[in-house]
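step=encode ok
step=design start
structure_in=
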């Protein structure tokens, strides 16, 4: 199983963002330099059903990707939350995965007292779980 090391500060920011929005999916991008994840960039969820779907604000997503490039970074990952379901890609997540080289991180708020965070490679309508380490 592929192992991915994430900085604790990055994980804490994503988990805090998910906890701050317990009834709507959060989403964003993770920027890296030299393959090492550095920071998360929250992007507004503009879905008309945010309690179980996410759609990144297109303008903010494009702006974030441009800033990543301008700073000599690369897109490392895409994250979102599942407020009421497990940290497992949905059929829609698989269908909408547009960046085959990106790590997809899903945070679930569906467990009592503990947040669950899992990482996946989404390619060709398949999800391959990776081992996340902090």
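sequence_out=
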């Amino acid at each position: 199983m592929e192992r991915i090391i994430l900085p604790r500060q990055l994980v804490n920011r994503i988990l805090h963002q998910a906890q701050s929005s317990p009834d709507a999916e959060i989403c964003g991008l993770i920027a890296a330099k030299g393959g090492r994840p550095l920071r998360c960039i929250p992007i507004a969820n503009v879905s008309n059903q945010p309690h179980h779907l996410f759609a990144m604000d297109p303008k903010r997503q494009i702006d974030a990707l441009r800033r990543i490039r301008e700073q000599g970074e690369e897109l490392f990952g895409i994250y979102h939350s599942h407020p009421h379901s497990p940290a497992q890609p949905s059929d829609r997540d698989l269908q909408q995965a547009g960046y085959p080289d990106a790590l997809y991180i899903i945070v679930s708020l569906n467990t009592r007292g503990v947040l669950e965070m899992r990482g996946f490679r989404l390619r060709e309508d398949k999800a391959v779980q990776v081992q996340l380490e902090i």
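step=design ok
step=annotate ok -> The first strand starts at residue 3 and ends at 5.
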